[in-house]
Fold this sequence. Notes:
Rossmann fold; 9 strands; two-stranded parallel ribbon; alpha/beta
Amino acid sequence: MNYFITAIGTDSGKSLFSAIICEALEADYWKPIQAGFPRDTDYVGGLLSNLKSDLIPEKYVLNTPASPHYAAEIDGVSLEAQDFNIPKTDNEHLIIEGAGGVLVPINEREFVIDFPQQWEMPVVLVANLYLGSINHTLLTVNELKRRGVGVKGIVFNGPSNPASEDIILKYSGYACLLRIKDEKEINHSIVRKYAAELKKNL
Length: 202
């Protein structure tokens, strides 16, 4: 099974969750566009314990830590969604991590969410909880529903807020796949712990 990992914004926890789900499924990992350094592929790879997951090189590594459409412009690169194809892999599971949130532009017409939409691939939505995150999460949910993108479920990352989580789950109708606590340290053991928990909900 292939999953596209997206989020309500930048730094919501997509890469951490990508490592967790790759560990749970022993899946391969691919980030189509990397804008800026350090590379998320290196971060994910550094958290995996299993020996089956392969890290597939990015199609584009852009130098500027910015929106892909702007980082590509600086590097003199043209990004078009139709030019991206799902990599062939012998693994039955592939995890693809998007850049930023669903409406991060890759050019003047297309957005990150166009990738799973054109590939007809279910997404997992990662949401971190902060003042204003209900609004940001539900706006993201509305866009996913408007586009008819399939959603496997939602992951909450960071300090728990049951009131926020409950209203998000009620309005979206999505299943909660995992709650990632505000861990003091992220390491192999933590990733394996959450991977075991996640397996029960996939």
